Structure formats: structure tokens, C-alpha cells
From TrEMBL, chain A:
It comes from Campylobacter corcagiensis. Keywords: Heme, Iron, Membrane, Metal-binding, Transmembrane, Transmembrane helix. One of its GO terms (molecular function) is metal ion binding. The keyword Lyase does not apply. This is Cytochrome-c oxidase, cbb3-type subunit II. It holds the Pfam family FixO. The gene is ccoO. Residues 47-221 form the Cytochrome c domain. The chain crosses the membrane at residues 12-33. It comes from the Bacteria.
Automatic annotation (TrEMBL), chain B:
Its EC number is 7.1.1.9. It catalyses: 4 Fe(II)-[cytochrome c] + O2 + 8 H(+)(in) = 4 Fe(III)-[cytochrome c] + 2 H2O + 4 H(+)(out). Belongs to the heme-copper respiratory oxidase family. This is cytochrome-c oxidase. Its main location: membrane. The gene is ccoN. It comes from Campylobacter corcagiensis. Heme b 1; low-spin binds at H61, H359.
Amino acid sequence: MFAWLEKHPFFFAVFLFIVIAYAGVVEILPSFADSARPLKDTRPYTVLELTGRQIYISNSCNACHSQQIRPFKSETDRYGEYSKSGEYAYHRPFLWGSKRTGPDLMRVGNYRTTDWHDHHMRDPESVVPGSVMPAYPHMYNKTADIETGYAEALTVKKAFNVPYDKEGMPKLGSWEEAKAAAMEEAKAIVEGMKSEDVKKAFENGEIKEIVALIAYLNSLK
Amino acid sequence: MRPGNVISYDYTVAKYFLFTTIIFGVIGMLVGVIISFQLAYPDLNYIAGQYSAFSRLRPLHTNAVVYGFMLSGIFSTWYYVGQRVLKVSMAESKFLMTIGKLHFILYVIAVLLAVVTLLMGITSSKEYAELQWPIDILIVVVWVLWGVSIFGLIGIRREKTLYISLWYYIATFLGIAMLYLFNNMAIPTRLLTGMGDWWHAVSMYAGTNDALVQWWWGHNAVAFVFTVGILAQVYYFLPKESGQAVFSYKLSLFSFWSLMFVYLWAGGHHLIYSTVPDWVQTMGSVFSVVLILPSWGSGINMLLTMRGEWNQLRESPLIKFMIWATTFYMFSTLEGPILSIKSVNALAHFTDWIPGHVHDGTLGWVGFMTIAALYHMTPRIFKREIYSKKLMETQFWIQTIGLVMFFTSMWVAGITQGMMWRATDEFGSLAYTFMDTVNALIKYYWIRAIGGFLYLVGFIMFAYNMYKSFTTGRVLDAEPRNASPMAA
């Protein structure tokens, strides 16, 4: 049969494709609906958190930090309770990472504060001596793109029925409402920060990237 | 074909891709060397503001090397090997010539766009699939063009039977096409809401599902670019260069079809102890071990092709590159399954052992085989002798030393890191902080960086040797039959 296939490229390609695709059908499809169910206390991100998440992605923080705690004592002692599938139901994309050059961040919101992140992003060595992480000064200058954050929230609400505006869930509302809510949320973070520039910018109605990023990091619990 | 009626193959497109293989190789490896030094010496993060932070350069490094260097190499060899094993010249078809050139141009545009967007921080965050949707669409077009080129050339072939290398090229094409499409499914937010950034898109899958699809891709991009595409090369170039027939057709058959069947199951080994279902993790683990068979099948087939001719290893640096590549392939495909065993994975996952493993595969297997393929093609494409055999020999040893420094230091680093993370004192509390592990690794990061630097030095010697061959190498009056001619 194989010798025959080698003389008939069309059938060769078709047969080959079936052989390759088979594994995906068997391995991926069955668990799909199952793993998409959110855990009881899991909620979608607010617009500001989502914006922060985009900044996290844009700077490839996931290249060095994982967000997946394995069920080992050494990991639960260090980072907190191990990860469950339902906790990730609103994570698009997933950010588990594949390498820990820095520690896991899945529950970093439980043990780090706004103030700590503020220092850490400006000068990692000031809070973690010997850290090999670079500083991210540009996050203090660039304005966060909360419009794209809102666009993403609206997209997942429309396309995947993510339960924004449902009871007990974050409110999305119109763009104006969402913007006001993001400002409100940002205010609490800005107050916890040292930087005068960030504060001044906020008074002018601008949210800096660092503020959104900290909102996101604080939400990781 | 009648004797005396020689086809003159058209290597225009092969030549274009040969140049980009070298150029993107130098760039990708240079970025790799920079980021490896950044880990040992973090101040290097600031050489170009936010654009030179490790986190921006790391995806640029992987993309430049995988899609810039390795894929270019695969395309270049395709436009060379394809014609020869099908006994048909591209010059015979205007259409295929146009497709080939278009394929090249759009490919280069896609790579350049990738560089710019990744530096700007426009990324989907999925490893080895970081590019955002407009570039993804362009890549699909590039891929389709390559498919047209493959099947177009097959359509007008004179040789009835598809040679082994062609199986692998077809598999690279089909495998990546399927995986890439599914993994990159995303909704551009601007299109749906009319707001926000044009580049931004949101993944079709969430959480655990997204991880499953991503590693189904991530692992198998390794399969169909790093493995299958390079096997296509070794199956053609090693027999050609050594003048020996492939050891066993049956073994080729067995290793090809079993590789195709088994490879995709193994993706789950990236997700051991994660939240994907246990049975997926176990399958990933078991099939990874099974994968040793087809991988070693090809490896043994290649090594036995040299039977009775091992003296060539001493005489020709080109054969050395190919045999070393095959050896590293076998080595790396043994290491992978070991890493997939649950208890080993528990220790090694998230540590530096993983980049170590990736690099003994990519630098040893892919890098060496691509270099060998380009060396073999040069005298035939440019009709010139390779400029310097001595330089080639030196390059081989420098790169080998660099490579060994790279993966051994990363093994030690990874195991150290894994052991320190889990170590406890007599009261059962953690013995080390995370920073203790970072401090312990710095010395290994230095060794790795120097190893990577040596590999780059060797690659630059390669680029120089190639350049000299194109321009000043002795002109050949006839095509060499097997062993590539090289000056002293």
C-alpha cells in the first residue's frame, strides 16, 4: 500500500493528513466543553485589569513568569493553592508560561501590594536584591490603552457569552460607563503609588500603563 | 530520461532562500547571544530602552531562528531538492517560477513584519505563535504558495515515485498548515467592536483549552519544522554527499509513518501536572516514550548509510556535520522522552533544562544539518568550490565546543534549580527562597552565554566561508557527483 501511495501524491497527502490529524481529534475534542466551566468564585476581568493583562502580554512577562501552580507541597508552600482548571475559564489567552526564570505569579495578588509592585517595576533590585529582571520605566510614561481593554471585554461578552453585567459579575456597560469605572478603579491604585508623575497624569484623566498592570497583578489571587 | 539529455535545474529561488537562511541565522543567533548574556548580566537589558528588554527580545530570538533561519533553510533545500528528485526543472514552468518568487517575497515581508511587531510588543503571547492576526493571514498565504509550489512541481514530474525527502516536505507542509490554522484562531477585537487597537485579537479558546491547543501546536511545530523538515534534508543530502544509498527503504517507511502517527500525541507532555485531564497527560507521557522508535529508526537508517565508509568522517568536514547532526537528533529524541516521564518532568519543568534540551536539538541537529545542506548545495548552485575546508573544520569544532557548553551548563542549572525548589529543611519548610535559586544559576548562565557566543562565532565563519565561495571560490566546470569539492 505504501509503495502505491508513493506513486499517487494526492492519495499520499490525504492519507498522511488523516494520520496526522487523528491525534488531535481524539486528544483535544473530548475535554473541550468540560474544561471551559468556570469555578464558582471565578469572575471575568474588569476593563482596567484586562488592559493590564494586555500590557503583561505585550512585555512578554509570561516568558519568565509562570501562572500555574503544580500540585506539589513545595509549590503550594511557596506560591499558594494549586491551580484548578475552572480558574482559567476567562483566560484568553492562557498565560501558564513554560519557564520560571522568575517566580510563579498565579496568586501574587495575595502576597504583594501595589507599593511593592511600584518599586519592583521601577527598580527590581530595590525590593529583590540580586534580581535579574529588567526595570520597566516606560510603563510609567506610556498611557494605558483602556479602549482596547474595553474592546476585548466587549468582544468576549458578545462572542463567548462571558458574563459581564450579570449579577455578582463585573459591570461593563457602555464605553463611557466603563471608562468611568476604570478611572475609579485606577484611583485606588494611584493613591497607593509613590510616583508624582503618575499621580499628576491621573489628575489629568490619564491612566499610565503601570497602573493598569498593577491592577492586573493585584487581581491574581 | 535519455542519457545525455541533462536537465538544467533552475536554482534562482533556492539561492534567494539560501541567502536569507544565512542572514536570518546570524540575526537570530545574535539576539540569542544577547539575551543569554542578559540573564548573566542584567544591565544589558537597557542597551536600547524598552526594545532591548529580555522579554521583548526572547520571542524575537525564537521567531528569527525558527521561522527566519530554519524555515528559510527548509524552503531553500526544497527549491533545490524538489527539482532534482522529481527530475523536472523549475525553468520549465513560468507559473511555478512566479509562485516561487512570490513565495520568497511575501515570506521576507512576513519575517520583517514579525521583527517590527515583536519589538513593539505586539504579540499574542503563545509560544512560537506570537504573531498577531494580520501577519498570521499573510503567513497562511505564504504557506499556501509553498504548497502550490510543492504540488505544482509534483504535478509536472518525470520521476514517478516520490523520494523519501518528498514525503517529509509534504508532511511539513500539511502538518504546519493544520496546526497553525487551529492554534491561531482568534477574533480581531476591532472588527467586532469598532474600537481599540487594530492589531489586537482575542483567542478563540480559553484557559485549559487554550493551553491544550497551544501545546498541540507548540510541540508539533517542533515536529514539523525542527524534525520533519530537517529529516527531508538528511535523507537527501547524506546519501548524496557520501555517495552511499540509504541503508534501508523499509526502515525509512517504518520510521516515516510511525513518526507521523505518534508525534502529535506527545504534545500533552508539556502539560504534565497542569490542569488538563490526567489521561491527556499520561498519553503525552507514554507516546513521548514510544516516539523514540521512529526517531531512532531514522537516525539508525542514516548512520548505517555510512557503513563501510566511515573513513569519510575523517576526510570530510561536511560528512562530520551531517553525522554529528544525526547523532544529536538521536540524543535529543532520547532526552525528550526522558523529560516526559512524570517524575522527571516534575523536577525539570519550568527549569533551564528545557532550554538546554531545545538547544541541543536545534543547534546540534537543525543547525548542523542546515549548515551541511547549504555547504552541499553551494558548489552545485554557484558552480564554485567551497572556499576553505580548513575554515569549515575550525567552524565545526568551535560550534561543537559551544554547543556542549550550552547544554551541559543548562542541565546542571536545571537540575540544581529543580532540586533547590523542592528542598526542605528538617522541619519540612522550604530550604531556599526563589532568589537563592537565581543566585545559584548565574555562573551557569555565563557558561551558556559563552557557549552560545562560540556557536555564533562558528556561524559567522560559515557565513564568511559561504560568501567567499560565492565570490572567489574556484570555478567548477562540471557538477560534482558526490563529495563536495573544497579548497584546502
